[in-house]
Each structure stands twice: as structure tokens, then as C-alpha cells.
Amino acid sequence: MAGKSSKGRSRKGTSNHNSNNGSITNGNVNNNTVSNDVSNSLKHVPAKDNNAAIANSENENGKPDSIAAETESAFSSNPQNVKEEETHNSEAQLMQGEDNLYAVPVKTLTGEKLEVHLNPGDSIIDVRQFLLDSPEMGFVTCYDLILHTKDGSSHHLEDYNELSDVADITTGGCSLEVVPAMYDDRSIRAHVHRTRDVFSLSNVRASFSSVIAKQNETLQNRAANSRDSSKTEVRDLDGLGFMEDPSGSLGNLLPSPLKDVKCVESIVFSSFNPPPSYRRLVGDLIYLDVVTLEGNAFCITGTTRVFYVNSSTANNFDWKPSKATWEATTLIALLQKISPKFKKAFREILDRRRAYHHPFENLQSLLPPNSWLGLYPVPDHTRDPARAENSLTLLYGSEPMGMQRDWNEELQSCREFPHTTLQERMIRDRARYKVTSDFVDAATNGAIGVINGCIPPINPSDPECFHMYVHNNIFFSFAVDADLEQLSKKSTDSNSNIQSTDIRQDSENVSDSQVPSGGKSNGSSSEDLNNGVEAAQEISPEAQLAESEQATYASANNDLKGTIAYQEADVDGLYNLAMAIIDYRGHRVVAQSVLPGILQGDKSESLKYGSVDNGKKICWNEDFHSKVSEAAKCLHLKEHSVLDGSGNAFKLAAPVECKGIVGGDDRHYILDLLRVTPRDANYTGPGSRFCILRSELIAAFCQAQASEKSKSKETNSEGADNLATNFQNEADADNKELTNEKTTENAEEVSSASAGGYDNCDEIVFNPNVFTEFKLAGSPEEIAADEDNVRKVGQYLTDVVIPNIIQDLWQLDVTPMDGQSLTETLHARGINVRYIGKVADGTKHLPHMWDLCTNEIVVRSSKHIIKDVLRDTEDHDLAPALSHLLNCIFGSCQAPAGKPDSNGIQSRTPKKEQQSAGKNSRGRARWKSKGGSRKSQPLYTKISSESLWSDIQEFAMSKYKFELPEDSRSRVKKICVIRNLCRKVGITVASRKYDLNSTTPFQPSDILDLCPVVRHSVPVCSDAKKLTDAAKSHMSAGSLNEAYDLFTEAFKILQQVTGPMHCEVATCCRYLAMITYHAGEMDVAVAQQQRELIINETCLGLDHPDTAHSYANMALYYHGWEKTEFALPYMTRALLLLSLSSGSDHPDVAATFVNVAMMYKELKKMNISLRYLQEALKKNERLLGEKHIQTAVCYHALAIIFNSMGAFKLSLQHEKKTFEILVKQLGEDDPKTQESLNWINTFKIRELQARPEFVQAFQAVTDGGSGSSGAPTNKSVNAAMIAETLPRGRGVDERAARAAAIARKKAAARGLVVRSQVQVQVQSHPPPLTPLFNIINSGVAPDVLGNGDVNGVKKNGVRSSDPADATKDQSVPTQKQEQTPAGLGKGLASLDAKKQKSKPKPKVEA
């Protein structure tokens, strides 16, 4: 899907600007430009995960570059045009990633000419989508396409063909013609629905980026039309009060919907439907009643060919055409004929759609994210016939007409597509992606119907929690979370010996009672586990049931992970079912495609591999085993032997409980992939049966082991040679023959010891059945070795991986912003979330990370409790229950009646004990009670703030082994926790300002919706992933041309496979923008970044951290484009999003402050710039420490600002602190440290130039009769540059000149270059610094401050050169040296950009 209509194409401008413009350089907030090598700088500037810090790198007068300037130098050797070696036939091809597009004219039904840019690989469905996005064709749905070639031939295009299969459009001369097609019952209804959608503007999603871009364009046009040479007035950034109270800015997050333009009164299906049989035989399909804005009522007939107005009245049906004989091939064309007001209003709708919209905004994501905020005030609920008709059908994801889709057959057929060439793999991946996405959408709708009770179960006689459902050829079953039962040890009925009928649950109903409660991982073994089974039988049936429920809930996650793992292994002949997990209203529903034949017969007859009874009987098949073994190689699973209940040994390459089944279609399916990785040896107690290791950890461990073995092999080979030499020397003194034998044996022993390691990571395999209740058939030594391998992985996790990520968090190599990004970061390193307590304990020295981990633990613990309450809540109590629970967490609520229990979980026990004794415990505790067991009082009313927080603390200790602090209730970042909790549970709240300090901040009316949270197994494009990984490697090495080519190729593939709206497409756009930015193509970089921003908002959400970084990067690009006034609105938006996701205390927020400060510095607003830098410095010192490199970046930025203001003493003061930090962190020999030293020398020179002593020496030279010779003057100037002080009252100071020469020699010996350009022309009357310090401290930048030196400040109209003033000036910063550096003002609290008035400049008395 690479093409698009030319209406929305971005055109490359002709201007070519320097990416830095001599004033700004991008750094990386995570690796900090100070600590990154030049070769790595591009990888992070600006980056998705990192907010690029801007540091000043002025090069005027030959000053040294800034510490962050190596980022710019990394691109100095690259050509301005990264793709200059390629031939560009059109400007639209440059830097767009679409350089293989060809313009094809289109003739529409109305005769209008339209042009689309297509790729030969585009399918006809893609072409239809491009036309649907254009205003000229957006309302035309039923048509055929005819391709005319330049040789005069015509080709009818079928939907599933590709253009390259029909004709070669690369030769030119091709055109497309749209011709009407025949309507049928389905297509004509789709046409009516599409027409209604076109009328509505409320469903149009207007991105903030498009709104900002439109505003910037308007300002630019206004400035151009006014012919005013002055720059556009830049308003200050919106006040930063939201950083302290972000709840007040919730209303600014959501865009205001566009107001609908009324073009017709109503369009409804007529009550004359369906057409009578005698009219059906002549082509009538549908009748519509239309009332126009003029008040005229028409009855319209839709036939297989046209729409026309018939002669029917309100009560009488007359099929004959009206006298006016109005007809048209589309409904909108007919309405334009019968209603002039409709024609005018419809033109206005199209104009509004064009006005604010980027072409990407017309595209929808296949799996859009849930929004946790809803519009406030709530929009009026208006009449909508189309909405009413859709709601009455209750389809729940099924097709309205025709046969239901066979999801399994579609998916498996797509997997069987040929995939030897890239083009074949693209077609295959696109088909799999589309089918799986449609399945997830249908499964989500079906799960909602299941939970709402609208779909009947197939086993109604079983307990409700074990009901299974088949709807739309999708199999639904419940997975139950019993963490709270295990936590509170509630007593339940003991008569529940439940046999699962779900094929997925056959291995899940195994009680963890078979797993002993035994101790630490390093002391456990399979023998201990087996011996513990008998002791574990004494566990009560209640505990067994609770642990079984927990296993059922946890195994659903593991099953999905295993399905994804086998999908990625992609073994020919081995198939998986499509799968999705839907969490809604406290229930977890597992949706799977239906296994062929499973509902028609006994599954045991088709079982060929694995076990359905927990190893008592194991099936095995050679053909199946060969396929599973091939997949095991990709998953690092070992082929091992297992004993069944009869003692027979079977060789397996998968977990025992997996099931290999031959379906009714003769395909080999593998199911119940609950443990595709070994069990975590650190968790072996009850309830931890499904605590398995992550596949990322296995891959990292194998890679580390292979690398270590390779190094040790080289070392041991050298040791073997040395050992052989030593034994040879002994042989000369003793029995030579005997010693030679010993020498050979010892040398071989050493060599074999090193060769015993694995040569590559593929040879490192693990037994997935160790530390389980299954009996292994191998020798004790082999079993012990397998157990030891798994223990090593667990030890590697706790001893290496977790300490490494803690170190990376401190170094800002990774900076998660919210709970989701923290989870993704942990998972990427192979760390399960159950270890988050250990991560939190290791980040106590990082306040922002400790807060983030603590908040995530609170959110996850609260999620389990809220879901438990929602499962027991009636429909009419959902909003009151959710608002009460939120008030208990963020406010202060008491139980309304009776004595509140100390534990909210235990308080539910009396209610449950009122139910009948024979009822299944899960059914009665978690499902809506029926008949006489209906509750008299809702469960949520018995919960108070104290009991809920007590449950949260207890759950955190039980689940995450983390003790929440006593003041955690008051310390949590409330807005961040609310956002995270709502996203995890699926709650949508009103976007209004909440008083979170009140006892009840939430009302039931604030709960706007409860949405499903979905996890799925949608496949990824492996070819594009490989290309992007390779491109990132090239970027790290500085090979921009190669990186650009690879990203462009990945972009094309992803466009074909997933369409534009996908996160991976956004990644390509981000890196392409980065490369073009550094190549100087600013307009192209902004266009690519705009794409990334829109995709992130659509696919990830408006407030996702990646969206925030997209806005920040857009601001950086505009700033590099010398359009800083356009950049500030994007920075405002970025700060708002960062405050919602992470709060104000985060290093990325501090880095954004540095960016904003440098932008204001370029706008000559030094007072605002200093205050942003002050806040950034405070945050970094508080969050990272005073000696962190990021703190050094802030000090350096302050030095640059003071240098621009002429306050060289302050510049020197701050740069010295920068140097001290760099020496401690990087060492004196590091290039960045030397760079800082150069800056110190420069600031020393400038500080001396501003001293009165220097002026006197200069004047003495001038007045001493030295004539026109400039040599003595230069010597005196150089002496003043080097010396700390100068003797007063002297003329030509020869000693100073000699000292300067000696100093130069010493500097040259030390490797310091004293640049001649540093010698600047010094004014004869430099100003005193006291007025400057007063102005800086007052927070107002004087008008006289320029970009370079400070002009003289007059004293009663006369320039002052009094040395006393200078002496007095020098004491100003000294007094504050131990406190906040001088000149930083009072902080952001005193800054109100909208209200603060400029203070008058302080006058210096004579």
C-alpha cells in the first residue's frame, strides 16, 4: 500500500538549510551527548525512546563546539543529500521512501480527472482504498476498474490481482477508468452506510499536529501577505502550572470534534422494505425515505443499476419513477440533483475534510487503542437511524449476510502460501496480518456478547464459569484469576472436583498441589519435587481449587506466548490456532479459532503427540515429532525422554502437557503451549507452576554463553599449548616416553574442556519439563545437568540481567516513562514483571524509577482487586462501583454501613457463605448469582479506603515480594496511576479537572465507558524487522546512505503488508526523518515526522510516551529549520503528554526543558531560558545526582546561555562544574572532557576581557605612544587572556607578553590549541556587571543583550569604567557559590508567562 492520491502528497520544498544553523545540536537524553561516542550519536538523535537534549554549540569567533556538538560533527562528512547517487525523476520521490511510485490518471464516474501514485506491487484492493480516501471518489463504493495501456489495450482489474500481473505501469501511458458496477443486497446497504459516514464530521479524527501545522501555515501566510520584515510575534509557552497539577490539563488532551454540517434532514430505510417479489424480479433492492433541508420528502428506489425517486407517498406505494425522472448511479449524486441546499452543504463538508487533515488521518488502524479519557462535557446524544439499525442486529462480530467466516481455514490457507521469494512472503504476510486482525476484531465483539449474556453456551448444564461458547466460528472459554483467593485463604466448598471440557484447559486443571511448597531454587531438584508430591497431597481441596484457578488464569497468558513463539518459528506442516485474550468487566475470555472436527468427535482419537491427562498416558508419532523437533531448535528446547504413568519412556521435544492433534482437515496442530520455556527455578512453591522464563531471557543467556565459551576456548587453547610445553620439559628429566603420554592426555583434557562448551547459541537447549511433577526418563546425571542449566538461567537473571538494567536505568540508556513502557523494557531484557519488586529495590537511588516501579505495583495490585469486584457487580451498579473504587484509591471513603472489615477481601466471605452449599465456589464467588442467591447489598459498598489499601499492600507482598511504604497512599502520582489503571482495566473517565485532594474526587457520571482490553497474536513482518535491525546497525556505525536505503525498503514492505497505520511504519518514518534532518532536508524531515506523529496517535494513543517524543522531535526539526516560533506549540504538547504519562519528575522532562530553554535563547528571551534551565538542573540533581552526566549537560547549557548574555564569569563558573563531573565520570583523557576544558579556557579569556584591569592595560598601550603598531597591543591582549590578573597602571607590559608566549608553549605541550580566532576586538569601555547580575536575578532580559557580547550599560548617559564597580560585580556570584548558581532566579513558580510584566532596568547611580 505504497501509493496515494496526489491530493495529499507532500511536496519537497526548494530551500536547503543547515541542520544545526550554528546554534543548536541534538543530544540524547538517555545516553547524554556527553557520554556518547560520535559513532553512536545518530542512533539517539532524536530518538523514539529518548527526548533529545539540545545543547548550544556556537561556533562564532572560533569558539570551541559544545559538549553535545559531536552529534553534529558526525554528519559533517556526509553529503547534504543522502540519496544523491540515485536519480530522482520527481521531487516527490526525494527522501520519501516512495521512490518507485508512478503517476496514473483516473477518470471518475462524473468525468473528473484524478491522479494517483501507484507501485507495481499494489493490489487492486489497495487502489480502491486510495480512491476511497480521495474526496472525488469517497462516496463511490460499487464500481469496476478498467486499466488502459499505451498500446490501446484494456484490462478489467480483479480485486485480488496486482498491477504488475496485468500490465507494466512503469512504461507510462497507463490510465484507469471507473465504470459503474451492479449493486446487490449487500453492496447497496454498504453504499448507504458509507454515504451516511461521509455526511458526518464527528467521526473525523483531527490530529493536534495537523491543527498546529494549519495554524503555523496561517501565520506564515499572514506574515508573507503583510510584507513585514519583522518576525512573527512569538507568544510564550503556555504556563507550566500543569507540571504541578496535570489534572487541570486533562481537558486539553482530547481534540474537539468537528461540528457537523447538516445537509439532509434524514435518510432512513423505508417501511416499504423489503421489495415485493414482482419488483424484486425487475431489480428493486431497497427503498429509502429521505427528507431534504427544503422540507421535501422523497421515496428513493435503489436498484441493481441506479437510484431514482419513485412516486410513493407516505401511505401508498408506487414504484413508478416520479415525473422529474431523477436518477443517478450513487445516492449522493441523486441528492445533489433533488436538493440545492444539499449540494451546497456537501461541498462545505468536503472543504472541511480537506482543510485540517493529513492524508494519513483518513486511514484507520485495524486494532485501534482504547482511550482512557472521554470528551467533557459529554456530547449530546442525537438521533442517528444508522446507529439504531446497527444496534438492533446484535451481530457481535459476525457477518450480517452470507456464511460465517471459517477463521481457521483462512488462517491456515494463508500460512500455506508460497514464501520463497520476497514478493511471495509479502503477499503471505499481508494475508496473514489481515485475517488475524479481522479475527481479533470479531473475537473482541464476540467476547463482549459472551460476557453480556447475549450468546448461549454449548454446555448450559455446567457451572457458569465453565461455560463454553461457539459464535462466528470462534471458540470462547473463561479463564479465572484466583490470586485473591490464594491471598486471603478463604474457605470454599470441597465438593468441586471439576473436569475441564475445554481442550485448552485440560492441562490447566492440574492442581498445583502436585508441586511442593519447597524452598529456594538453588536447592530444589526434580527428585525433591517428586518426593514432595505425596506431602503435597495433604493440601486441602480448597487450596487446590484456588491454586488451580490461578493456574488457569496464568496459563492463558503463557498459552498466548507459546502460540506466538511457534508462529515465529514458522515450521512447515505445523499449525497453530488463531488466539486472543479479552479482559472485560473483570472476566478473562480466551478466544480461539475452532479446530476442525473437534466439536464433532472425541479429541482423544486424533491426539498424536503429548498428553491430555497430565502424563498418565503419553501419545507419540514420528511424523509429528519431527515437526515439533524442528520447532524446538528455534526455541532452544531439548529433545528428552519422559515416563508416562505406566513407566513407558517417550522422547519429546516439547512440554508433556502440549497436545499434537490431527484435525479434520488432516493438518497437524499443536495446542496448549503453556510452557515453551523452562520453569523459573527461582519460583518453585505452590501457585508458581506457570512461573516460566521469558523467551527473551533464554535468547540473551544463550548468546552470552556462546560468547563466553568462544572466549574461553581461545584462552584454554593457549593454556593447553603451555601445558604441553611444561610436560615436555619434565620429560627431558624423567622417562621421556611416559611423560609424552601424560603430556598428550593432559593437553587433550584441557582442549576437550574448552571444546565442551557450545560453539554457538543454537546448541544451547533446555529441558522444559524439569522442576515439574512429570517423571523424566534420563539418567540422574543428565537430569541434574538439565536442572543445572535452568538454574543457571535463573541465576543469570538475578545476578546479571537485573543489575544490568538497573545500571542502564541510572545511565539513562533506557528511560521508561509509564507502566506500559516499563513493562516493555523489562520484557525486552527477559525480566518477568513478577521481578519488579527486585527492580524497585535496586532503584532506590533513582527517585523517578522507584516511583515508577511503586506506582506500577500499586496499579497491578489494584487491577486484580477491581476485576474481582467487577465480576460480582450487576450491570446497573458498574458506574457506581467503579467510581467508589477509584475514590477508595485516590480519596478517602469509609464503608457506609456496619463494621468495616480490616481486610476488604475477607469482608466478602459472609456474603458468599449465604449461598447454597452445593454451588461451585468459583461460580458463586465470581459470577452473577441467580434466583434466591441474589445479593441484598452490592459488594463494592463494603470496601473502604483503608481496607482496599490494606489489600493492595498485602497483594504487592504476595505477588511481587515488595513491601509498599506506609506513605505510599499519599506518595503515588495520582494522575499517572489513574491513567495507567484505567488503561489496564479498560475504564474511560471524563476529561475534566478532578480535585484529587478531596475525599470523593470521582462521581458515577465521570465513568463514561468500560472497554475490553485485548491481547492477541497478530503476526509481524519478519523481512521488515530484519531490514530495520540492519538499518539501525548502519546508523550506529554512521553509514547514513546504507541506513536510508534499508529503512526505505522496510517502509515499502510494511506499507504492502500492514498498510500505513502500523507502529513499525511509524518507526521507519521516524528514522527516515532523522536521516533527512541531518542531511539538511528539513522540509522532508518535517513531512516524515508528521507521518510518524499521526501514526503514533492512531495506533498507540494520544498520550502514549512515543507520541510525546514525536511531538518533541517535530519541535526540534522546526527549530533546525529556523522556525522556532512554529516549534514551541509542539513542545507545549510534548510537555503536556509527558506530565500525564510520567509526571513532572522525570529526566525526559528535564531534557525537554533544556530544549525549550535553547529555543527561547534563540528568540532572545533569556529570562525564560534561564528559568527552564534552572528547573532542568534541579530535576537532574534531585533525580540523578549532582555528579551525573545529565547534570553536566545542564551546567554546560547554562554556561552557554551566560556566554550569550556576556556573563562570562558565570559561564566559567558553570563550565568548571561541568568539567568536574566529566573528569569524575569519564576521565581527563575523554574527548568530551577535553572539549569542556577548551570551553573553560575560552570563558576565562572572555571573563578577563570584561575586567576593568584588562581595559586599563589596553588603554595604557593605546595612550602610551606605541604608534600604529599592533604587536604590543596583541601581546598585552594575549597576556590578559592567559594571566589571572594584570598589574594596574602599566603601559606596555613586556612581562605579560613574555608570560603569554610561555603560556602558549605550555599549552602546546599539553595539546591545547590556542586559536587565533578567539582574539576578539575588545571595547575600550566594557560595561560593569552589577546591572547585568541585577537584571538576571530579576528574571528580565534587557533589550541590549544580544547574541554575543554585552553592549555598554550607560551610567546617567555616560559609559562607566570604574574598577570599583567591577570589583563589586565579582563578589556577586561568589556569595552564592555554595547555593544555586548565580543568575538562576527563583524558579518556575515565580514565572507566569502571560501575566508577568517586564521590570524596568535597574539604574546605576553615578
UniProtKB/TrEMBL annotation:
Residue segments, region Disordered: 1-90, 489-530, 709-754, 899-939, 1347-1406
Pfam families linked to this entry: CLU, CLU_N, eIF3_p135, GSKIP_dom, TPR_12
Biased composition (Polar residues): 493-516, 1369-1380
Residue ranges of every copy of the Clu domain listed in the record: 379-684
Keyword tags: Cytoplasm
CDD domains the UniProt entry points to: CLU-central (cd15466)
Keyword Acetylation: no
Entry annotated with the keyword Cytoplasm: yes
GO cellular component terms given for this protein: cytoplasm
PROSITE patterns, per database record: CLU (PS51823)
Compositional bias per record (Low complexity), positions renumbered to this chain: 15-41, 50-59
Alphabetized InterPro entries for the sequence: CLU-central, CLU_dom, CLU_N, CLU_prot, GSKIP_dom, GSKIP_dom_sf, TPR-like_helical_dom_sf, TPR_rpt
Biased composition regions of type Basic and acidic residues, renumbered to the chain: 733-745
Listed Basic residues bias regions: 1-14, 921-933, 1396-1406
Record-linked PANTHER family: CLUSTERED MITOCHONDRIA PROTEIN HOMOLOG, EUKARYOTIC TRANSLATION INITIATION FACTOR 3 SUBUNIT EIF-3
Descriptive protein name: Clu domain-containing protein
Species the sequence originates in: Arachis hypogaea (Peanut)
Upper classification of the organism: Eukaryota, Viridiplantae, Streptophyta, Embryophyta, Tracheophyta
